[in-house]
């Protein structure tokens, strides 16, 4: 099972999000991702918006907890929109091109979950990707194909509708191949200013997804947590894993929902329903 | 430009083929591959038949000349059929799944050259791969797609005909996309007992391909070359690069030709002509 | 905490030792090493005697469970004496030269444990290594320094005495630096025919160490375990980790003991006592 | 032979220094380092001052020209003091801890050249490193030992004197071991505001070292070179390799010299003479 987080808000140091001391909020969120006890050792990646419009990616097949370059860079990257992803491979090779986040132009995408029976239906799904987008697929994961299907169906114009159509197509193709409940996903995507997150599974029991509650409140409630003092009021976090010991810091995104967080910190949440072709 | 070699004959140590002292035959063949002066630093691979019917692969994205594991293994691998390949990427990522040789069942395949305009026609070429073979494609190279096209067209039954049909398809698809002279290749493939090699380019100016002349003769002519004393009489080598200073050791495979070397060391050579669909 | 195993006996395939199906003996021994639930992701290594007198090493900083080359090679390596080690770094860099087993001439060495306060006393310990051996130290671990101290004190002539002197020196130097209980170790070393194993800690609570009981008996007692049918009667295994569900397969090496297994499968066990300089 | 460059001046994007188009000044300087024709494939590193006082390091054992992370980061790193180094190993392992630049506190250090007979005299040289500095040595290169000797002899207080004493010690120890002409070096070191460069060899034939002439002049002389328009007037570059086709852009640092460039762009140049203990 992969794990991921997104940050949006005023620019902060990636180190404050990824490597802060043990009792910090984010450290807890990332505990099983970047800590010594994790099994998510199949590569990792971060993506962030900094210089220029196109997000930068740093990805590696080393376990994140061993990667000295990651620690170095986390202390230098100051960004207002960061994605971080820890991969647990479901079979495709452990290689940089299979590490999340994926990027196309100014867009980033990352995914936790999988498409059941992907080897069986990959050919048909890939065939549905727009011919002009197809050559940009670099790796071999279901996650990246889902991204390119969403791009094909208009991600850049209407992200929720495009993801609904992409998921609908996967469900349609899977049904034709006799595969039940093909989609399991929590997805995050961003264009540099807005972040969208999706929680959905065909079977109706999706992997978890949480967003942060107001940092200002948390700062007042938990003066003992240093990172609350570091993160700005505008900080908005979305994480794939619940926090056991600070339940008031997180709100669960409901089943079959998508949400968005705009540049100025406003959030919305709506129902998600796949649209079959 | 990639470089490769094949060995077939009585079992020898891979070290005798890959890392023998400076004036040895194979050392010269591999000089620019494994030596300090090469630019072929985009990964390498070896494949060999040993235990079991399926060939074993050792591939790495480290430059071959730095790979301590390769040096260790070369001293332990004893085999009668070895492929070695040094990659120079033409754009696809430097990752293990893009390193040659490729394998399917008992078959190995490696390639020097490229398909012009591959990003443009990849989608159509991949669409022509047999659906049951498609999920086995692991990397993103033109070389691997060519292998799966050849498998689709019957590589396991009639290798020369299958490669002629695969190349014919590529030329047909490329023509449809307005791409001239799409194929440039020297290819080697093997099933565990026989090795086939192909030299062809659409433009009629193929990259070089050489096979060894009789080792017994060379041993008599060049008693000063130690590796001639090590390699058995049955040794047959095919290499992508000419040797400058031992011309009598190598015979050039002519333009638009394929050859085969059987387990007992017999060789054949025939004309190669793409078959369009 | 590192984990390791040694095999000695008639030649077997490394695959039978490292990757056999879920209910096999060795699979259980290695479950937390090579399986998906381990945290031992800081590199691994295997060493074995094959061609020539010098053991071959295959080491990588990839997690062992991700390393496709390891899986390939395990199916090709047939050996009568194998070391396998999974590293959990205690601070020194994750790099090949810090992966076990270490090698000097025909000798291999691997270690689980550590030297407390190593950064403080490293300079003095390294200074005690014989000048002619010193340049052969390649990495930066305490484990390798312990190996070179043992070599300095006569490992090649009398392994138990040499290790007792090496450990004695470490304890002496540590005492001088005010460090209590400096040594924690289970160590294996071999010369190509005999394997020695050591269990010792300054504090008297050493990490665990087990050796296999007679495979012939186990085969009769557990006909349902396929690997018992594969391994020869001469098979002798030493492992750092107990097996929870097959207690009759393993005997614990007592605290402060060393044991040896000769080429013909005979074993001895003796008390271990550090010898201060 | 390693290659390196330093940049100091107003903050610029690392991309402008490392990856600018073919006809740019720096591209030429780095041509054989980062280009496709190089043999410097034994790892690389960059170090720069950004957030905080301690420089950040990004190092990898991948060839620099293959490293996608380097390309990504070069587009994001904006710095006023950058070191870049491409390694050609002279025997020590290709591993991150052997890649330059090295760092201690706020200081960086990189080196082209080597210490002749280093394996023979390493023990004595390492023994001369201050005990409190010794544990910080991470790798196994002569270059890093030279750095720690310089730190031992007061690099942080008087860099030229400290390097003169470090080199003097190496020559003294080498003489005692019968090694002639032990030191070959071009070295760069920096503390975050000032950069020092050294050109020296015991034999009196040092590897090359160049510094840029005034960028403002070059901009006027070469309006056709885009990077001259990008780099600020304060830009000061020191490079290990001459540029063949823009001789007016570079001035050679003479044999047995050291130079320094301060934060405000002023430079000095003095004679360098080893000081034996």
From TrEMBL, chains A, B, C, D:
Domain named Glutamine amidotransferase type-2: residues: 2-277
Keywords tagged on the record: Glutamine amidotransferase, Transferase
Top-level taxonomic group: Bacteria
GO molecular function: transferase activity
Transferase as UniProt keyword: yes
Classification via InterPro entries: EgtC-like, Gamma-glu_amide_hydrolase, GATase_2_dom, Ntn_hydrolases_N
The keyword Transferase is assigned to this record: yes
Name used for this protein in its record: Glutamine amidotransferase
């Amino acid at each position: 099972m992969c794990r991921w987080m997104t940050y949006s808000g005023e620019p902060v140091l990636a180190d404050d999000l990824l490597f802060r001391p043990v009792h910090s909020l984010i450290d807890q969120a990332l505990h099983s991702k970047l800590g010594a006890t994790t099994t998510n050792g199949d590569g990792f990646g971060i993506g962030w918006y900094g210089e220029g419009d196109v997000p930068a990616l740093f990805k590696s097949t080393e376990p994140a907890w061993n990667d000295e370059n990651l620690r170095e860079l986390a202390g230098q990257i100051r960004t207002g929109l960061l994605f971080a992803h820890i991969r647990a491979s479901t079979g495709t090779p452990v290689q940089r091109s299979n590490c999340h986040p994926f990027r196309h132009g100014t867009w980033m995408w990352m995914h936790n979950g999988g498409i059941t029976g992907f080897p069986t239906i990959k050919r048909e799904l890939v065939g549905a990707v727009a011919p002009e987008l197809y050559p940009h697929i670099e790796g071999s994961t279901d996650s990246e194909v889902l991204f390119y299907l969403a791009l094909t169906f208009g991600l850049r114009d209407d992200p929720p509708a495009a993801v609904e159509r992409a998921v609908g197509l996967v469900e349609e193709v899977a049904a034709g191949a006799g595969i039940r409940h093909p989609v399991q996903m929590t997805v995050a995507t961003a264009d540099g200013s807005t972040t969208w997150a999706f929680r959905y599974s065909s079977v109706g029991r999706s992997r978890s997804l949480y967003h942060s509650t107001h940092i200002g409140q948390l700062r007042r409630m938990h003066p003992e947590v240093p990172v609350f003092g570091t993160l700005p009021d505008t900080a908005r976090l979305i994480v794939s894993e619940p926090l056991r010991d600070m339940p008031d810091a997180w709100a669960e995104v409901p089943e079959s929902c998508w949400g968005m967080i705009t540049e100025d910190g406003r959030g919305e949440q709506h129902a998600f329903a796949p649209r079959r072709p």
